[in-house]
Amino acid sequence: MKKGTLSKALCAVALVSLLLVGCSGNSGNESGEKAADGKVTINYWGSMTPEFTDYLVKKVEETYPDINLKISAIPGVTGGGDPFINAAAAGTLPDLFNSNPTGGSTYSDMGITNPLSTFSDFKEAVANVDPNLIETGRMGDGEVHNLITYGATPVMVYYNTKLWQEAGLTKADIPTTWTKFVEVAKKLTKSTAGGKTDQYGLELITDGRGGGFNFQLGYALYWSITGNPNAGFLSKDGKQVILDKQAYAKTIGLVSDLILKEKTSPPERTQDIFPTGTIGMALNGPGFATVLEDPDKSKVVGQWDLFPLPTLGLGKGTSNALPVGGRTIMMSRNTKHPEEAWKVIKILMSDEVQMQVYKDLGEFPVSKTVQADPEFASDKVVSAFLNQDNTQVNGRDPFYYSLISDNLSPAYNEVLAGKAKPEQAVDAAVTKLQQLIDEDQKSREVLLNNK
Fold it and tell me: Phi and psi for 305 in degrees, rounded to 5?
C-alpha cells in the first residue's frame, strides 16, 4: 500500500469512528451509574504514579463524598490505533482522560471533548494559571477544552561545571544571547592535533523526526526571528500553512551550523551523552536533574548546573518565547456527570494538589501560588526555571501537530545529510505538509457528507 493511501485509510477509519460518537452513550464503563451508596463513579484514564493516584482518589472522596474516583492507566491498543478515538467510537471513553496539549486539541477538534470554560466557576478555577497555558487549550469554538495540569516547563541548558571550569569559564560567562551561546559552545569543544574532537561543547538532537528539533530549539529560534509566537505554523482554522519559510530556513541553518560549520556538536545521532561527563552542555527539561544525580546513570553527580535558554536576540523577537509541554486533562463530551467530573478537575488545579504533583510526580505545577512557595522555589532546578527573565511560554499549533512534526522537522535532517540547502528543504516540506492537510480536509468533507 502506498504511503499516501495508508494515511488516507487511517484518517478515514478515525473519522468514521468519530462520526459514531454522537450515537454512542457511555456504555462499557461505570460512569453515569450510581452505586448503592448513592455515589457517582467518575472514570479517569491518567498517567501518574501509584502514590499520586492513591492521594488524588482520597482527596476527591474527602472533598466530595458523593464522588467515587476511579483512575486507570491509559490502555494500549492491540494492532495499533488511538485508545481515545477507539473508546469514543465504542462509547467507552471515560469521563476524564490525560493527553499532551497538542493531542488534547486534536481530540477536541474531532468533537469528543466537553468544553471546560463553559462552567460558571472556570475563571476562578484557573485564576492562578499563566494565561498562555490556558490559551493552549482554546479551540475554534472559542472555548477552552483542555487544561494543562502539570509539567508546563520549557527547555533549559544544563552544563558540566568541571568542563566549564577547565575551559576557563565562570558564571559570568553564562550566555545571554545566541551569539554568546555559540561562543561558549566553541570554548567547551576540544580537538586533538589530528583534528579529532575529544569533547563537544553542546549535545544537539540530530534527528528531526518526532518533532524533537522543533521543541528543543526550533520554536525558540523561529519565534525570536519572526517576533510573533502567537502566529504558529498554521492558520487559526488549521487549514493553511502560514509558515514564514525564510525564518524557518534560518532557524534550521543556525542549528545545523553548530554541527556542520562550528563543529561544536556531534554529527551522529546522540542520546543523552551529557551524563557521561564528556560533553559541555545539553538541552533538557527539569526531570533531567533526577538522572544526573543518579550514580547508576550519571558520572556528573554534583558536577552540573543549569541556566535558562538565553534571550536569543535574533530578528524581531524582544523576548524569549518557548514551547509548552505538559500533561492536559479533558472531559468526554458524553459524560453523564459533567458537574462531578468538573469537580475532579478543580481539585487537580487546586494549590494543595498542585504541590503534591511536585512531591509525588516531580512535575512542575501550573499554579503561580505554588510556584512562589518557598518549599518549591528553593530547589536549584526549580529556581532556574522560574527565574527566566524576559521569557514567556507559548502553546504550539493545536491542529495537525503530528503532521507538522513529521514533515517540517525532518527538513533539518535533509540539511544535516547534505541533501539540500535550508531554503530548499523547507520549501519542499511546506509543499508536502499543505498537500497532506488538503487531502485530510477533503476526506473529512466526504465522510461528513456521507454519514
Answer: -150, -175
CA–CA separation, 155 and 325 (whole Å): 9
- CA distance linking residue 94 with residue 113, whole number of Å: 11
Residue for grid cell 459533567: 338
Q: DSSP letters along 90-144, please? A: HT---SEEEE-HHHHHHHHHHT-B--STTSTTHHHHTTTB-HHHHHTTB-TTSSB
* Global pTM value: 0.80
Measured between alpha carbons, how far is 147 from 145 in angstroms, rounded to an integer?
Answer: 7
Cell triple for residue 447? Answer: 465522510
- For residues 26 and 336, the answer to whether their CB atoms sit within 8 Å is yes
Per-residue pLDDT tens digits for 29-45: 444 556 556 789 999 99
Spatial CA neighbour of 327 closest among 296, 277, 374, 362: 362
Q: Which helix (H) or strand (E) holds 57?
A: helix 50-63
DSSP string, 374-404: HHHHTSHHHHHHH--TTEEEE---STTHHHH
Beta bridge partners of 43: 70
Going across the sheet that includes 304-308, the strands are 190-191, 197-203, 279-284, 156-160, 304-308
Map residue 196 onto helix, strand or coil: coil
3-class DSSP state of 365: strand
Q: Cell for 236?
A: 487559526
Q: How far is residue 275 CA from its own chain's centroid? A: 23
Ranges of H-type helices in 129-188: 131-135, 161-166, 178-187
Residues linked to residue 98 through DSSP beta bridges, in sequence order: 329
What is the per-residue burial (b if ≥16 Cβ within 10 Å, else e) of 168-178? ebeeeebbeeb
Residue 150: what residue type?
Answer: Y
pLDDT in tens, 249-292: 999 999 999 999 999 998 876 667 899 999 999 998 877 888 99
Residue among 255, 233, 253 nearest 244 (CA): 233
